[in-house]
Design a protein that fits this description.
Layout lengths: L8 E5 L2 E5 L3 E6 L5 E5 L8 E10 L10 E8 L5 E2 L13 E5 L15 E6 L5 E8 L13 E8 L5 E3 L2 E4 L8 E9 L10 E7 L10 E2 L5 E5 L2 E10 L7 E11 L6 E11 L8 E2 L1
Parallel strand pairs: 5-12, 5-13, 14-21
Antiparallel strand pairs: 1-2, 2-3, 3-4, 5-9, 6-7, 6-8, 6-10, 10-11, 11-16, 14-18, 15-19, 17-18, 19-20
Length: 283
């Protein structure tokens, strides 16, 4: 077995030896010998850190600090949603939420303000799903300057710092690398009441080191006229780590109208810089 050559400090507390290093705390139970790694800044009950940088990316707002709402879902080994303490979460909503730079308006500030997020969680947490919404001064989601971001289905290692950087892509209008998706929707060749429709755009692949994955939880435009509806989802990141395009899962959900209490149609599309591919849905 290799020996780790590290500077360390030992403290004995109620039968447990705590060994401190620069970025890790190791707890060794003096009676059982059980070793528990604890990430820096966390505790024995929540030894795992989920952290990362968060800022605007590309174009006129590259590296800007921005106001953003971060929704994090945490799953245990059984793929069940839990809270940060590891207890089952049975209510709706994210496992945990964070708002960075709450006093800013969009698009943010060129001054470096808060550009980090993070929390400590139980060792029962095995997977994290992270979604980011740009917010205006009133707390409403605003995609005018920046798109949303996501990092889905990331494995979480217990007792260490799990680093998941997030980047909100600057709109193509402001020289960023984004594109849009738009199209028409029909049910039996008729338009649908917009209140019965919901659209989402999810990244097709799991996260990458550059943290530039687009995401949208709603359509920025949804109208009804004649025999069809028109929708548009704007400012989806067009590529990760220098890629020219990015693949998305686009879902259209119709509730209480399209022949069932709820119907969802899934389609796939590539988004490139400045492009606006058409994706239609017929219920």
């Amino acid at each position: 077995m290799k020996k780790l050559n590290i500077t360390k400090t030992k403290i004995l507390i109620t039968g447990t030896i705590f060994i401190f290093t620069a970025s890790l705390l190791v707890a060794v139970n003096n009676s059982t010998g059980k070793v528990t790694a604890i990430a820096s800044g966390c505790s024995s009950s929540r030894p795992t850190a989920i952290r990362g940088s968060i800022k605007a990316y590309g174009g006129d707002y590259n590296n800007w600090s921005t106001k953003a709402f971060i929704g994090i879902d945490l799953l245990n080994s059984n793929k069940k949603k839990v809270g940060p303490a590891g207890n089952r979460k049975t209510t709706s909503g994210y496992s945990h939420t964070i708002t960075v730079n709450p006093s800013l308006s969009q698009p943010g500030s060129a001054t470096v303000l808060d550009q980090t997020y993070g929390l400590c969680v139980s060792s029962k947490v095995k997977t994290a799903w992270i979604e980011v919404y740009p917010k205006d001064e009133n707390g409403a989601t605003n995609y005018t300057y920046l798109g949303g971001a996501a990092d889905h289905n990331r494995k979480v290692k217990a007792g260490v710092i799990n680093n998941f950087p997030m980047r909100l892509p600057t709109s193509f209008t402001y020289n960023g690398n984004t594109g849009d998706v738009n199209g028409y929707v029909r049910y039996k060749n008729k338009a649908i009441n917009p209140s019965n429709l919901k659209f989402r755009a999810f990244p097709y692949l799991a996260g990458s080191a550059c943290g530039v994955q687009g995401f949208s939880a709603s359509a920025s435009k949804l109208t009804s006229g004649g025999s069809k509806n028109y929708y548009k989802i704007i400012n989806l990141a067009a590529g990760q780590c220098g890629s020219a395009k990015q693949r998305y899962r686009i879902t259209a959900t119709c509730t209480n109208k399209c022949g069932a209490s709820k119907r969802t149609i899934l389609k796939y599309v590539y988004v490139a810089k400045g492009a606006r591919p058409r994706v239609d849905f017929k219920f």
